[in-house]
Design brief:
Layout (H helix, E strand, L loop, with lengths): L7 E5 L10 H16 L2 E5 L5 H7 L5 E2 L16 H6 L4 E4 L8 H14 L2 E6 L2 H8 L5 E4 L11 H4 L1 H14 L4 E5 L5 H9 L4 E4 L1 H4 L4 H9 L7
Length: 229
């Protein structure tokens, strides 16, 4: 059973200095208030050093930004899935463009996540990679062309075909896998187009974190995801 709802707005805080100290909690609380107001699924991915603090302070789903396929115990410096599970973190990004891992590691992590009832959100850069990852049966695949990440040029406008092709490719393999898109998403219009192309949500970072008004931009991005009765 899925532990998340769609459409989903996934906010990756990365390591931007705007979210240092208590600000990771602040933006997560803002996200929580908007999720409550709109009934949109908002998921926040804080840096690992503040993960536990954020999980303790909000009730919305919180994911890690990265985990390692390392063993429990003598694996100094690694972040293991069992550890994030122990603090009630509900999932993690895997294979983000800024933290790429091998397909073999991806497969092992997806399996560990499945056993732990954690949500696996695996990032892909191309249709070929989407296909390879879909065969491993993660919960979610996020298509993010690397050349558009942080560019302010929305993938849904610049390269809409990669979204629709990703959705079609995944549906041919397993219709239970949800497809998100990211890279350059900045506005509610960008989100609307992505949803029309078949995406079940978006993965965003700088478009939110670098905004001067977190509440306004998160609300704008959420509005196209509000389900009408």
């Amino acid at each position: 059973m899925k532990k998340y709802r769609t459409p989903s707005l996934v906010i990756n805080l990365k390591n931007y200095d705007e979210i240092y100290s208590h600000f990771s909690v602040d933006i997560s609380k803002i996200s929580e208030s908007i999720a409550t107001e709109t009934d949109v699924e908002i998921i926040v991915c804080p840096p690992n050093p503040v993960l536990y603090k954020v999980v303790e302070n909000v009730s919305i789903p919180i994911y890690a930004q990265h985990v390692d396929d390392a063993k429990i115990g003598s694996s100094t410096g690694s972040i293991v899935p069992e550890l994030i599970k122990s603090i009630n973190c509900q999932g993690s990004l895997i294979n983000h463009s800024e933290k790429r891992i091998s397909i073999n590691e991806i497969e092992k992590l997806i399996q560990r996540f499945r056993e732990l009832d954690l949500t696996s959100l695996v990032c892909a850069q191309s249709i070929d990679e989407v296909e390879s990852i879909a065969k491993l049966k993660p919960d979610i695949i996020a298509i993010e062309p690397p050349e558009l990440i942080g560019s302010g040029r929305a993938v849904s406008k610049v390269n809409p075909k990669i979204i629709s092709d990703s959705v079609d490719t995944v549906n041919l393999i397993d219709k239970n896998i949800d497809v998100l898109c990211g890279a350059g998403i900045m506005t509610g219009e960008d989100v609307s187009i992505a949803l029309e192309l078949g995406a079940k949500g978006i993965l965003i970072a700088s478009g939110v974190i670098k905004s001067n008004d977190w509440k306004t931009i998160i609300l704008e991005l959420s509005k196209p995801m509000i389900k009408s009765d």
